[in-house]
User: What shape does this take?
Amino acid sequence: MLKKGAKFGSFAELEPLLEKFAEQQCVPYGIYCSLKVEKFFENSGHQLPPALKYQSFTYACKHYGSRREKGLGIRPNQSSFKMKCPSRIRVCADLDCNKLEITCITAEHNHICDPDLAPLYPEGRQLTSSEAESVMNLVNMEVQPALLQSIVRTSTQKFTTLQDLRNLSRRMTKGNDKASSTNTNASDVQRMLEELEDMKKNDPNSKLCIAEKEGKILYIFWASSQMQADYKQYPEVVGMDNTYNDNNSKMPLGIFMCHDRNGHGKVVAYILLRSEKKEILHEAFSEFSACYSRK
Ligand SMILES: [Zn+2]
Assistant: This one.
């Protein structure tokens, strides 16, 4: 239980409780003003059990503290989450019993805590490593950023911003320079097929259809289970729009969309086409109606 005076024999014992607390508050929390046991030993000569990890720390709401205003004042175009929110848990080691003790706990916030807002924080927008890898495969296929963003939102339900995707791309390219050099022989199409197989595995109710003729791909149809659910809800009008030059193979990408009651577009299927020849388009539309008429 997290309450004032509660004691814990290790940080590992306390950590899940802190995470649960943050989850209930619907706001990300972080560790601030911490002093690790090693540093504490250097300063004081008092050896605490390494399992405590910290001699002391504050586990505080993302909006805790005030923004630094040095020199000429607030720098332009610099955003900060800090807004003097008082919500925090202060933890200090009890030197008599060598345990971590909660010395202060404040649950109140000076801002709205809404479960609907939680996914909009950078922490909620972070992609898992497998999601990040999927994104990088699409980046490598030179998928346009806005389209990539829409794919990420549809497949992960995370509100990833264009800047998040740029940062991710920069970070992953740096880290993967060596690894990717061994992969350059794999063609874009091959990589995309692998990617789609993975997406299918992660979303077994999704619909994936790869139509081939004489060893050449005619079209690839993809509808995630979320897209199918959106279609079920708003099937009144469906439009199709194509984008070009999204990939090295120069295959146009068709996007089937419906509109929710607020007029926002919802992607209900993607289809990558060999060309826009009448026969191929005809088959693509048949695939779409076959996918949805079964529902
Ligand atoms: Zn707060």
Notes: The pocket of zinc ion is lined by residues 27, 61, 63, 85, 87, 109, 111 (CB under 6 Å). Residues 258 and 266 are 5 Å apart (CA to CA).
